Each structure stands twice: as C-alpha cells, then as structure tokens.
C-alpha cells in the first residue's frame, strides 16, 4: 500500500478512485468495463505526480527525504552487494544497531560498506534508534575504515540519519569525540571513499560518514548542519517555522551541488525513490561504479591529499 505525504493528498484521491474501480469490477458479477475509465484516472494521476515533483520546495524535499518507504541501508546492501558479512561492535562498549557495516563485494570487487539504518517498521525503528547513531556506532565505523585502509579496500558509505543520538548516555560516552574521530578517519584513509546520501544527511552524524572523495546525493535527499525544525526552534523559538528554516539552510541536493558540497546529484524515479526501488538501485549502482573507476588508479597519498584539499576549498563557490 502506497503511503502518501501531505502535499500528495490530491494524488492519493485519484489513485484511490482508480483502485476502487478495478476492485469493484473484480467483485461484480456483471461484465463491467471500467478499464478505460481507470486508465484515464491513471493518466491524470501521472500528470499530477509529474507536476507535484517538478519543482519541490526545500521543505517538501525534506518530507520526501524522510518518506518511510524510501529504500534504506539494509535494502541497498541486499540489492547492490554480494557476500555481505556484517561486522559488529566497537570493541569497547557495545554494538550500535543504528549503524550497519561489514565486508562485501560490489560487482565482484571487495569493499567495505557502512551505513545508517532507520528501520522499516515500529519494532525495527526502535531497535535501530531511528537511524540515530550512538558513540559506539561511530567507533564501529572507525574500526571498519581502519580495516579497509589496512587491506586496500574501497569504502562505500550510505548516509540516512536525522543526526547523531543526543541522549545523556551517548554524551557521557563521548558522542562529539566519536563523531570527530570518525570524520578524522575519513580524511586519513588511503583508499577510495564514496558516500551516498540516500535520504537525510543530518548534522555531524552525517558528516562523520560523508567526508569522502565523492559525495553523491539522491535528487530528493537533504544534507544540513541541523534539521529545519531544530534550526527554527533556535533562531525563531518556533519549530513551526521549519519551512522558512529549510529555505535558509540551502539543504537540497541541487543547492549543495552549486556550493560544491555535493559532487553529483543522482536522478530519482518520478515521485521519488520510494515509488520505484529497483530503478533507484540501478541509478546508485551505476554511479558507484563510475566513481570507483575514476578513483581506482590513484595512489593512497594522492587520495588523502585531494580529499583534504576538497574540504579546504569548500566555501569558494557561491549561489
């Protein structure tokens, strides 16, 4: 069953009517020919869908990026990688279910894959802490990046998090230090590091995985220093001003490509990645392949130098 966002309600009505017509025809004993009428509704829905997604404003982009039906880290790993072997724990405190990671093959090439996992239903979302990693999650990622560096394996990270978990226990165990160390490790590894923001890229919790040679963003993903609601609460003392905050934050993939933060914006199927997982997987797979081909012949010291320089140069472009 399709889940609709608030601005998609007119689309839900049209698609719902088409489904009702077809269901009525199946149940009726009479020879009801409703296919032509349902097809007309399908065409109308397709046109409306195209119009709705033609020019989404930043707040609507945030809503799409957070859509519960978008593919998550676990989905990408299942579809794009083979021989995935999960590695758990930070060898210090615990395993963080919000961060997945391990050894795998991407088109028969050995790699290390790391990503945030939000969960797909109530039980898994609670288990995964809604994709909000604790310090042990970032320390697990550091351990995997060190392993990748030691054995010369490219690193692929899948970013989809509202931000790092701000709970008391996480702060007591050194949340900010863990994020900083993970970001530092990204800048130190001498292997190709490719990061894809598949949904939300929230705050330092995203930066810790996305300080990469190539930062790719899906068309309707967002990447920002703080959520629009958090920004509005701080600046206007009113979380309801999240629409204005989303505009001011320049958090869309298109804005970030102009600013030089994102290296590539990947097109999504019409209506967003949530409407066609298979097509999304194909687009992401092709982009990863292209990036790996571009980076494969670079020496470790050159990768480190160019990656550091890339981030030193941020801010030199303007809108």
Describe the structure.
- The protein is an alpha/beta fold.
- It has two domains: about 5-55; about 60-310, 2-enoyl-CoA Hydratase, Chain A, domain 1, CATH 3.90.226.10.
- Helices cover about 50% and strands about 15% of the residues.
- It is built from 14 helices and eight strands.
- Strands 1, 2, 3, 4, 5, 6, 7 and 8 form an eight-stranded mixed sheet that branches.
CATH superfamily of the largest domain: 2-enoyl-CoA Hydratase, Chain A, domain 1
Task: Provide the low-confidence segments as ranges.
Answer: none
Terminal CA distance reads 40 Å
CATH names the topology of the largest domain as 2-enoyl-CoA Hydratase, Chain A, domain 1
Strand content: 15-25%
State the oligomer. single chain
Q: How do the helices and strands follow one another from N- to C-terminus?
A: HHHHEEEHHEHHEHEEHHHEHH
Q: Helical residue percent?
A: 40-55%
What is Rg? 21 Å
Q: Helix segment count?
A: 14
Named CATH architecture of the largest domain? Alpha-Beta Complex
Number of domains: 2
Query: Averaged pLDDT, please?
Result: 92
According to DSSP, the number of beta strands is: 8
Shape: globular
Instruction: Supply the CATH class of the largest domain.
Output: Alpha Beta
- Let me know the largest β-sheet: 8 strands, mixed
The chain-level structural class is alpha/beta
